[in-house]
Amino acid sequence: MKPITTAAEAEQAIEQLTALIERLTGLVEQETLLMHAGKIRAACALEPAKAELAGQLFAAGEQLKVSGKFLLRTVPARCAALVRVQEIFRAVLQKNMIVLATAHAVSEGIMRRLSSDLARKASPQVYGATGRTAAPNPKHGRPLAVSRTL
Fold first, then answer.
1. DSSP states of 81-110 as a string?
2. Angle (CA) 42 44 48, round 5°
3. Alpha-carbon gap, residue 49 to 131, rounded angstroms
4. 16-73: pLDDT as tens digits
5. Which has the closest alpha carbon to 100: 32, 25, 26?
6. pLDDT tens string 105-150
7. Is 133 in a helix, a strand, or coil?
8. What span, in angstroms and rounded, lies between the C-alpha atoms of 105 and 97?
9. Residue 149 — φ and ψ, nearest 5°?
10. Which residues pair with 127 in a beta bridge?
11. Phi and psi at residue 141, in whole multiples of 5°?
């Protein structure tokens, strides 16, 4: 990567990175709202655009890393503004990860419950030595097929 050598290049590079972060922030917020509303298919449709922006963000960030000291000396106010944009992005990402983790936990709970119910129905209903119904035998459990197509 070619280091940044002029103030104009520094301004342009920071502006480009800021724009990428803001676009990705908007996309992540949109994904969060869709997931929160249970619109998983629509949220998954955002993945290619998110991946593209993340790749561009990584490349732009690497270029700025090469010239970090120069940027701080040349355009300190722009660097401070970039830090604020990054903090906002970090907060949006944190909220997004909480929503995604919640959706994952809920779906995992549903799948475990479904698997348990199917195993219980497949097992013979007998009483054990204590006079209570016996727990389902894992040998009677059937594999649970899941379609990954939403």
1. HHHHHHHHHHHHHHHHHHHHHHHHHHHHHH
2. 115
3. 59
4. 999 999 999 999 999 999 998 989 899 999 999 999 999 999 999 998 888 888 999 9
5. 32
6. 988 888 888 877 777 776 667 776 777 777 666 666 667 777 766 5
7. strand
8. 12
9. -80, 125
10. 133
11. -70, 140
CA distance 33 to 31: 5
Counting beta carbons within 10 angstroms of the beta carbon of residue 6, is it exposed (0 to 12), middle (13 to 18) or buried (19 or more)?
Answer: exposed
Return the amino acid letter for 48: P
Question: How far apart are alpha carbons 96 and 75 in whole angstroms?
Answer: 32
Q: pLDDT at residue 88 above 80?
A: yes
**Every domain of the chain and the residues it spans:** 7-122
At 23, list the tokens: 């676009």
**One-letter identity of residue 75:** V
Q: Distance between CA 116 and CA 108 in Å, rounded? A: 12
Integer Cα distance of 127 and 134 in angstroms: 6
Q: Give the number of residues written for the chain.
A: 150
pTM: 0.76
How many CB atoms are located within 10 Å of the residue 130 CB? 7
Residue 18: which H helix or E strand, with range? helix 7-36
Specify the pLDDT at position 111. 83
